[in-house]
Design goal:
279 residues, alpha+beta, Alpha-Beta Plaits, eight-stranded antiparallel beta barrel, 7 helices, 29% strand, globular, disordered N terminus
């Protein structure tokens, strides 16, 4: 197989398996084929999450104010939402990745969640038309290793061949413990997408979302260590993703903001914003 494709088909960002900037490429460790499993430990707070990738037209600072001040507080007030993090791309990927850790994928169809999405605030209604290229979906963790959330991430998006999900997951699950055992690493997980959530008023304003793919997300507290670990555990001339019609795409991200439901429960909604710059 040829080199991995970078960051959602951006042709100028093609990644070679030996690329020292991202350290991406894949090799198998062992030939075990069996049912999908995950490690006892979880790299995130839960074993399910809603993951989004998107760009914003216009002022990204305005988006960040809305997302931090109103949107995350609102989402984390909904039963089932545990922690949320916003990430910013280091390359030509969609600028934003948002991860909402939830108690289960059933949160995506819960009455509380759908009621909130069907009654957007004025600020949210004004923001929605500025979203571009939204990829969104709830996912279940099917393999995980390590713990904690580092400030540096590499994300791989891929689609296993039909009937090959268990084999591919087993191969990736065998790699994760070696990846997260390396100095500077935090955690890593393989995530399987659930069926797309229903259309809501918020989505209707911004336009239909693209469905989420399978994901491998690895984080570290040391960007250089993450690059080296990915190269060591997934690199090499024999790198391959057996049976995939298209090579995976890879993207590096930096942590931008994180908050938990516990923090939200102890803080008031919509406190006054003091902006010396007058924005």
């Amino acid at each position: 197989m040829g080199p991995l494709k970078s960051v959602f088909t951006a042709p100028s960002m093609a990644i070679d398996p030996r690329d020292t900037a991202t350290g991406i490429g894949i090799r198998w460790r062992g030939d075990t084929i069996g049912t999908i499993r995950r490690e006892d430990n979880l790299a995130l707070c839960t074993d399910a999450a809603m993951v989004l990738f998107y760009d914003i037209a216009g002022d990204t600072a305005d988006h960040d104010d809305w997302h931090s001040y109103e949107h995350l507080h609102e989402r984390l007030s909904i039963p089932g939402f545990v922690r949320a993090s916003r990430w910013v791309s280091r390359g030509e990927a969609p600028r934003y990745m948002a991860i909402y850790e939830v108690t289960g994928i059933d949160v995506g169809t819960s009455p509380d969640y759908l009621a909130r999405l069907n009654a957007p605030t004025p600020w949210t209604s004004a923001m929605m038309p500025r979203f571009r290229g939204m990829v969104r979906g709830f996912c279940s963790t099917v393999a995980s290793s390590g713990y904690g959330l580092g400030n540096a991430a590499v994300v791989l998006r891929f689609t296993p061949p039909e009937g090959g999900e268990a084999r591919l997951t087993e191969g990736l699950a065998a790699v994760l413990p070696g990846l997260t055992a390396r100095k500077g690493m935090a955690g890593a997980q393989v995530m399987r997408p659930a069926p797309p959530p229903p259309m809501t008023r918020e989505q209707a304003i911004r336009g239909a979302d693209a469905p989420q793919s399978w994901l491998l997300i690895a984080t570290a507290y040391d960007r250089a260590a993450l690059t080296a670990a990915m190269a060591a555990e997934f690199g090499g001339a024999a790198a391959r993703w057996e049976g995939l019609a298209e090579p995976p795409v890879a993207a590096p991200y930096d942590l931008h903001y994180v908050a938990s439901a516990e923090e939200v429960a102890r803080s008031p909604a919509h406190p006054p914003i003091v902006d010396p710059a007058g924005r």
